Amino acid sequence: MQPWRRKISGIAPASIGFTVDQHGFVVYNDSILDLPPKERGALSLLLSAWPKSVSKKDFALHVWNGRMSNESLARCMAQLRRVLSHVGMIKIDSLYGLGYRLTIQSDDGDASAQLPSDRDYQSGAVKVHPSVTAACFYVQQILQNHSPAAYDRAESIINDVISQVPDYIPAKLVLVQCMASRAISGVHGSPQAIDEALKMLASIERTEPDASGLHSQKAYLLDSKWQFNEASLMHEQALLLAPENPVTHFNHGLHLLATGAAADAVAAFRSAIELNPFSPEQSIMHARSVAAAGASAGDIVEHAREAYRIHPDSQQVYLYLLGMLAFADPQPELAHAARQISLSRSSWIQTAGTISYVLAQCGDREGALELIAAHATASVNIRVTHLATLIALDLIDEAVLRVKEAAHAGCGHLPILLSFVENSALRQWPEYSTILTHIFSH
Predict the structure, then answer these.
(1) Over the range 45-56, which residues count as b (16 or more CB within 10 Å of their CB) and which as e?
(2) Are 50 and 20 in contact (CB under 8 A)?
(3) Pick from 9, 143, 198, 291: CA 20 to 30 A from residue 303's CA?
(4) Which phi and psi (to 5°) does residue 157 adopt?
């Protein structure tokens, strides 16, 4: 048996998207599996018990309330196996005298066929089990939530994957993405983490200089340190090497938006969406770039509505829509809608800033100030997400102070925040050009 096959037994079902929610429903890649009650209960039990087996006695007690026949359990397992066969990579083993257990499938063509046909996860140096590829893909999906809980979960999964296959380059690239996302957002990260991530990329480049996604990831990190000239050259290389990779176009769009080329950013984000129409984050940034390029208030709202029409289940897109509606036409019902959104570690990092902005625009000054105060001890890259709120409350001096603090930090998303249409009033501030000079002197 090859070493990678032995190691893969440590990859948990959660690493490829299988979890059980608080109500006992089985969730795969953030969508609830539509299963009959018995099958749902049995699969939930198997997932909760992993890596241990579940005895027939436990199935009878927890799923059948003590009234179970061997035939009914066998039928249930057969049905679950049919469902899981469409997913791939995970199966139910029968253990004589012990019961049943979930395991990661051994390498076969069927399991591989269930994965996205994405060459980004292929590496010539190490052959890996399909579930490792799926785990890397799943972690990147989690990262798009951009919340403290998402960063923790993504990093935990990818570290587990790397412990199983330490030489797999795509997994290392995903770890770099985790480190960068946490540091840039200001969620329990530090500017030094960006330097550590760049060192990891340098090590990867020495091992596999043509690794897919390497140049775009490096460009993104350089952008986060505001080293835009170096980043620009790296984006050009990334686009030449991977013109069909949506992340390459998305990262380039972020670079263009940060450097004031909003019209070009619109085209870059549009290219990313054409290659991957399922990303809410890409839709938001495309709409953001349209607004930054000088769209009218009506067009800004229309683009926000279109993004929400495409991604009706995304809270990020819903929040963006609320913000743009409040920007264009503040109404009390918008503030009411914003107040219904709860805040937790699973919330998008811009949730509190967006809610406070909607409240400020719609006349709830006290509510907006309360949210700002709740984040008074957060990192500067979190506190600066309330920039638009401070402007809406006419607290320009406080807004300017936060911009100066974020500029002094020397990394993060400040250049992109300054492009947001709701922050445009800052451009009239006398020292604004000085701040821009500081940002672009890195």
Answers:
(1) bbbebbeebbee
(2) no
(3) 143
(4) -65, -45
Q: What pLDDT sits at residue 320?
A: 98
Distances (CA, A) of 39 to 76, 78, 100, 126, 333: 6, 10, 13, 37, 43
As a whole number of angstroms, the distance between CA 30 and CA 14 comes to: 11
Coil vs helix vs strand at 368? helix
The pTM is what?
0.76
Cα separations in angstroms, 151 against 53, 182, 316, 413: 30, 6, 16, 17
Closest CA to 173 of 221, 130, 129: 221
User: What's residue 112's pLDDT?
Assistant: 37
Token pair of 425, please?
């009033």
Helix (H) and strand (E) counts in the chain: 24, 5
The pLDDT tens digits for 99-117 are 888 887 644 443 333 334 4
Residues pairing with 54 in the sheet: 100
The per-residue b/e assignment along 314-345, b for 16 or more CB within 10 angstroms, e otherwise, is bebbbbbbbbbbbbbebeeebbebbeebeeee
169-194 average pLDDT score = 85
Q: What distance in Å separates the CA atoms of residue 396 and residue 392, rounded to the nearest whole number?
A: 9
Q: Mean pLDDT lowest for which of 63-77, 192-206, 300-314, 350-364?
A: 63-77
Mean pLDDT of the 24-43 span: 84
Compute the average pLDDT of residues 179-192. Answer: 80
The answer, yes or no, to whether residue 256 has pLDDT greater than 80, is: yes
Burial annotation 263-300 (CB, 10 A radius, 16+ → b, else e): ebbbbbbbbbbebeeebbbbbbbbbbbbbbbebeeeeb
Q: So what's the pLDDT on residue 176?
A: 94
Please give the average per-residue pLDDT across 243-261, as a whole number. 95
Rounded (5°) CA angle 308-310-312: 50
pLDDT digits (tens, 9 = 90+) for 300-323: 999 999 999 999 989 999 999 999
Check residue 418 and report its DSSP letter: T
Tokens of 72: 């009914």
